[in-house]
Every structure is written in structure tokens, then in C-alpha cells.
Amino acid sequence: MTDMFDIFIIGGGINGAGIARDASGRGLKVYLAEKGKVGSATSSWSSKLIHGGLRYLENYEFKLVAESLKEREVITQIAPSITKPLPFVIPHTKKLRSKLLIRLGLFLYDNLGGKTKIPKSSKVTFAKQYTNILQSKFTEGFQYYDVQVDDKKLVEMNIDDAKKRGAHIVEDTKVVNASRTDNYWEITLNNNESIKSKILINAAGPWINETVNNVLKINAKKSIRLVRGSHIITKKLYDEEVAFTLQNDDNRIVFVIPYKGEYSLIGTTEVDVNTPDNPSISDEEKIYLINTINNHFIKQISQEDIVETYSGIRPLIEDFKEASKVTRDYVFDLNSENNMTPLLNIYGGKLTTYRKLSEKVMEELSPYLPATKIKNWTSSKQL
Questions:
Q1: Could you tell me which residues come within 8 angstroms of residue 358 by beta carbon, excluding any fewer than 6 positions away?
Q2: Number of Cβ within a 10 Å radius of residue 171
């Protein structure tokens, strides 16, 4: 292919898909290469939520929570066919977070995102509600709302829209080399095809540092921490269309979410790993999630009740904290010193903020892109 592209994207997860959609909608020539199937790695092994991140407030990440809550509203509007608001119930445990702390957190959660159609939080008592689900030691709690999403479908819808707007998308295609000239990048694919692009974006997710070191062959300025998050799926543990946010003694939380009408989705865990390849749940993670259920629910479960498991790797920005305290925000590393052809490495990020991340990528790269009359547009066009 001899065409010159404006942007070449490595990685077809949610961030790569969102950037491809945004850029192609601005009239830019976009090429995206995904080494497997689009949305087949981290982006489809999430807890399947578009959420503000209630627990991020404990780490004082007010900016991230506010942005996430605003994006929750936007994505609900642009992807109504694959999203739905869902009530979450937090059973209160006296020895963990105080009622005052939870009330304060929920007040911020209700208001940081601005106007919303999603219901506000409330206090609940379990004298008549959920008595068939929760153990009798739980007498009161709190209810708030977040949004359930088909995560893989969200990636695919962004990819499909990008294609309609002219983006060139290839799957099962790995970038094996990328070299810089004064005016463009020359990218070599594993089918020996060579692509020229004015800008290169590394949106490889958990494989970002591997791509920087082995494909781009430059020194990475930032480090990624790989954290495995695992889920178990059981036959549904209750009939009500409600999710639970369960607090553990280690201060982590575990979600129990209605899933596909017949199942309960339970997760997630946080385990540091050394490789992004072939993640799978450990026996320790299964026991951790099972014990969480058995410490809260009347119905007791065992490993025999697990019908399926899945694990994904979160590429978190390394800041040497406990995994649960590492930021879920994103950081850009723009490599364009001495007027070199631009390279943008994208570190971190979460499913909820992919669209805003894509807009910020366009803003970051605007000095290097052809002038276009189309500005930010993705919040007003349905997928």
C-alpha cells in the first residue's frame, strides 16, 4: 500500500478503536492494526461497567471521577442499545468504612459529574428488602447507580463506525517494525506489507512497553504495571435486577452483577503479573471471590458452582502503590523532539473514559495534523 496515512494506530482495544473513530470522523486518513481480533483482550475482560469509580474517591482522584461520571452520561446516550443503568447496593459493615464516609462519597458521586438522568443515591434498610439474599448481620446500606455495558460490542461499534468514516482496519496483523524518517513513519507488518504514516500512535494496552522496546526500539519514558483482574461466573444467585458492591476486610470491593439473564458475574481481583499474555485465574483468586460471597450472602457457593471464569490484564501507570491504589487515569507520552515525526504512547486508561481520551489525543496531535473544520464531535453522534 503506497498511500500516506495521517495516523497509524497500533492496537484495536477500546482506546485504539475510539481514536480511529474520532480521527476518521474529522476527515483524517487512519490505519489501525490489531494483532488479534479487535476488543479481544483487556477491553472485553472487564467488569462490563461504565462507571465513575466510586472507590477512586478514597484515593482523592476527584478529577478522574468527575470525568468518568460525565462520560458515563455521554456513553449512555451514544450507545443506548448496549448500556443500561443498574442499581448497586452497598451492605454497610461497621468495622470497615463508616456511614459518614460512605454518605460523603455518594454525595460527591451524585454531584461531581453535573446533570444526569441516572438516579441519585439513597440509604436503604434490609428489614424488607433483600432478606432472601443478604445475611441477617447486614441491616442497612446504601444504593447508587452505575451503567452496565457490553464491553466487546462497544469496541466493535467504534470500529464499525470508524470503517464507515473511511478508516482502514486490519485484524490478525502484527506490527513487526517501525522506523522514522524526517517526514513519516514506515511501518512493517507481519505480512511484509509496508505502510507510511505521518503520525504513529501506540495504543497497545498491556503490550505498550513491549511495543516500545521491541518494535519502536526506543527508550520508554514511563513504566506500566500489569495487574490481572479475574472474574467468576455462576448461575444467578438471586432473581432481582440489582448489583451488589461488597466490602472486604482488605478494603477492596467485589461486584456481584446480574449477567446475561441467567448468571451472576463476580469480580474483580487485583494480582500483579509479569506478562500480559494468556492470563488465567488462580485458585487463590477463586477462593477470594467465593469467600466474599459466602461472607455476605445467605446462599453459599463453592468452586463447583463456577460455570466460567475470565481474566484480563490492566495496564496501570507504575507508581509503586498497592494495586488497588494505583491510578486508573491515563497519561500521554508524545515523542517529537527536534521536530521528529510524532510518536504518541498511551499509558493507562479505563473503558469509561475512552471517548474523552480519544478527543484529548486529537488535541495533543493537532499541531501535526492537517487543518480540519471538524472539531470534537463524538459526544453527539450515536454509535
A1: 15, 18, 19, 21, 22, 23, 378
A2: 14
Grid cell for residue 220: 520508554
CA distance 232 to 308: 6
DSSP 210-222: HHIIIII-S--SS
Place of cell 463476580: 266
Mean pLDDT calculated for residue range 358-375: 92
d(CA 383, CA 379): 10
pLDDT confidence of 218, banded at 50, 70, 90? confident
Asked whether the predicted pLDDT for residue 40 surpasses 90, the reply is yes
Q: Name the architecture of domain 57-148+225-320.
A: 2-Layer Sandwich (3.30)
Cα 290 from Cα 300, distance rounded (Å): 8
* Domain boundary assignment for the chain: 4-42+153-222+328-368, 57-148+225-320
pLDDT single digits (tens) 101-135:
899 999 999 999 998 999 999 999 999 899 999 99
Cβ-contact 49, 146 below 8 angstroms: yes
Peptide bond into 245 cis (omega under 30): no
Please state the separation of Cα 33 from the chain's center in Å.
20
349's CB contacts (< 8 A; 6+ apart) are: 15, 315, 328, 329, 330, 357
pLDDT tens digits, 221-255 = 788 899 999 999 999 999 999 999 999 989 899 99
Q: What is the pLDDT of residue 324?
A: 43
CB 219 within 8 Å of CB 299:
no
- CATH number, domain 4-42+153-222+328-368: 3.50.50.60
Segments of 336-379 assigned E as strands: 343-348
Radius of gyration of the chain (CA): 22
326: pLDDT confidence band, cut at 50, 70 and 90? very low
Q: Is the pLDDT of residue 36 over 60?
A: yes
The CA distance from 72 to 321, in Å, is: 27
What lies within 8 Å, CB to CB, of 13 at 6+ separation is: 38, 39, 41, 42, 43, 155, 203, 205
C-alpha cell at 44: 472485553
In this structure, the number of other CB atoms found within 10 A of the CB of residue 95 comes to: 7
Judged on CB neighbours under 10 Å (0-12, 13-18, 19+), 137 is exposed
